[in-house]
UniProtKB/TrEMBL annotation:
Stored Gene3D superfamilies: 2,3-Dihydroxybiphenyl 1,2-Dioxygenase, domain 1 (3.10.180.10)
Name assigned to this protein: Glyoxalase-like domain-containing protein
Native species: Halotalea alkalilenta
Location of the Glyoxalase-like domain: 5-180
InterPro entries, per the entry: Glyas_Bleomycin-R_OHBP_Dase, Glyoxalase-like_dom
Length: 261
């Protein structure tokens, strides 16, 4: 059984404006703000394969998406693609996962001055993975997400290479994630212990007291990692070399971004 990345989620809670401004300054193209029917807001950073989602919560309303409110700020979502959410739900239940029923929701998208509705169906696995939210997503309207005008980024980033999970028991964590299937394509799920994380990212790996398992870093492919280091310097963001490229620390959103060729 194989798995395919759909997207990764960074929870910005009530600071979505600041997050969007920061990621734009790093050279990413962001989609216009989306408003989910579930009670959350977002911006996407879209690539040919997969995307990053900056998710947050609206102000001035009591209708807030509870799972986002209860999740920590930072990298909090690993989302896998699926073609048939009902069949995916049935398979996960057979495997022993406590999968929630298929959830359908939407958000308006304006295309060429006309409002359309982007629709999604998800199968969530709450509590199954200690690092954060893990779920499957089916895009009923992919043409409203992967639009040509959103795919180019001034910083030269072209895709998601890896999600690094740090775990106090990496072998046990790896066994749990393996039940989801092995990843096809160019995306890698890397599960390491704290010592290996520090060996890769140095002092920037330290984000204060953290839980035993967490989504620690996102690695992104780009043409020239040094250009991202320059942008980070201009923004006052700590950064440093890694064996594969450059890592940038975004402490306001408890996120490490590694840029690799």
């Amino acid at each position: 059984m194989s798995a395919e990345l759909d997207h990764l989620v960074i929870n910005t809670r009530f600071d979505t404006d600041a997050a969007a401004e920061l990621f734009a300054a790093l050279g990413f193209t962001l989609t216009p703000r989306g408003y989910h029917s579930l009670g959350s807001i977002n911006h996407l950073i879209v690539f040919e394969q997969g995307y990053l989602e900056l998710i947050g919560l609206p102000s001035g309303t009591d209708r807030l998406r509870q799972e986002v409110l209860e999740s920590p700020v930072g990298i909090d979502g690993l989302v896998l693609a699926c073609d048939d959410p009902i069949a995916t739900h049935e398979r996960l239940v057979r495997q022993g996962f406590a999968a929630q029923p298929v959830q359908r929701f939407s958000r308006p998208v304006e295309v060429d001055g006309v409002e359309q509705e982007a629709r999604f169906a998800t199968v969530r696995l709450p509590g199954e993975f200690a690092a954060g939210r893990v779920y499957f997503c089916h895009h009923e309207t992919p043409e409203l997400v992967w639009r040509r005008e959103w795919l180019g980024h001034a910083n030269g980033v072209s895709g998601i290479a890896r999600l690094t999970v740090v775990s106090a028991e990496p072998e046990e964590s790896a066994r749990r994630y393996a039940r989801l299937g092995g990843f096809d394509g160019d995306f890698q799920l890397d599960i390491v212990d704290a010592q290996a994380l520090v060996a890769r990212f140095g002092v920037l790996a330290w984000m204060g007291v953290q839980p035993p398992e967490r989504f620690a870093a996102i690695s992104l492919r780009c043409a020239d990692p040094s250009l991202l280091a320059q942008r980070a310097s201009a923004l006052g963001l700590a950064h440093g070399p890694t064996p594969a490229g450059v890592v940038v620390s975004i402490p306001a959103f408890a996120t490490l971004l590694e840029f690799v060729q």
